[in-house]
Amino acid sequence: MAAVMIPIDPDKKDDVYYRYKMPALQCKVESSGNGVKTVLPNIHEVCAAINRPEDVLMRFFQFDLGAQTTISKKDDKYLIMGSRQEEQMQQSVYSFIKKFVLCGQCKNPETVVHYDAKKKSVTKVCGACGKETKWEANRAYTTMYMYYKDHPEEATAGKGTAEARKRSCCCTAPTAAAAASAEKKATKTVIAASDLKDDRKDRSRCL
Questions:
Q1: Which of 104, 80, 105, 108 minimizes the C-alpha distance to 92?
Q2: pLDDT tens-digit series, residues 147-191
Q3: Are strands 35-39 and 69-72 parallel, antiparallel or unpaired?
Q4: pTM higher than 0.85, yes or no?
Q5: For residue 149, what are the domain limits?
Q6: Would 60 be classed as within a structural domain?
């Protein structure tokens, strides 16, 4: 069954013009010899919408709900021990979004994680206003840092972010100037190396 699309920012639930949507987190309660557990069948779609890894969100659930979580890569299953209601799980997702997704200044969800190996830190960079927000040091932050330390390729500013655009402009300006200079030199070279044939002797013979 397709998940209901809801606003990424919970404070925008009554704003009909808000365009950033995500699928509501689905829950499926299963019971077996190992006890009752809740499966999250559409966690991939949720994490794709908020641009954050599943592993980090699952660790956040563990801290936020005080519950054991299990990830079975082989079966592609993301489990939380105990019976969990969708409303409770969605509230936990929103807590994660407020802390680790929404821009600290403009509240835009188009943020990316920036990993600084030298400073040993991770921050979020907004693609709309360019604001770089630092996170409070806690267990959830440590999980975020450790994940991106192991996966630095996933912690780069996207092409559409303000930071990336700024870098692009800085790089483009000198490149354009160099190109213009090269073109000017090439034009001068062509004129100086003119190989037009001198036919004055030929004309004098005709006369």
A1: 80
A2: 999 988 888 644 444 444 444 445 444 444 554 455 455 444 444
A3: unpaired
A4: no
A5: 104-184
A6: yes
Domain-located, residue 25: yes
Query: Does any domain span residue 196?
Result: no
Strand ranges inside 99-145, DSSP E: 111-116, 121-126, 132-134
Give per-residue burial for 174-197: e unless 16+ CB within 10 Å, then b: eeeeeeeeeeeeeeeeeeeeeeee
CB neighbourhood size of 24 (10 A): 18
- What would the pLDDT profile of 13-23 be if each residue is shown by its tens digit? 999 999 999 99
Q: What is the pLDDT of residues 127-145, one digit of tens each?
A: 999 999 988 888 888 888 9
Q: Residue written as tokens 């160099």?
A: 178
Q: How far apart are the C-alpha atoms of 147 and 107, rounded to whole Å?
A: 24
Token pair recorded at residue 58: 């699952």
Total number of domains in the chain: 2
pLDDT digits (tens, 9 = 90+) for 46-72: 999 999 999 999 999 999 999 999 999
CATH of residue 96's domain is 3.30.30.170
In terms of residues, how long is the chain? 207
Q: Are residues 96 and 167 in the same domain?
A: no
What's the confidence (pLDDT) of residue 188? 47
Distance CA(44)–CA(26), nearest Å, equals: 11
Residue 207 belongs to some domain of the structure? no
| Residue 117 sits in the same domain as residue 57 | no
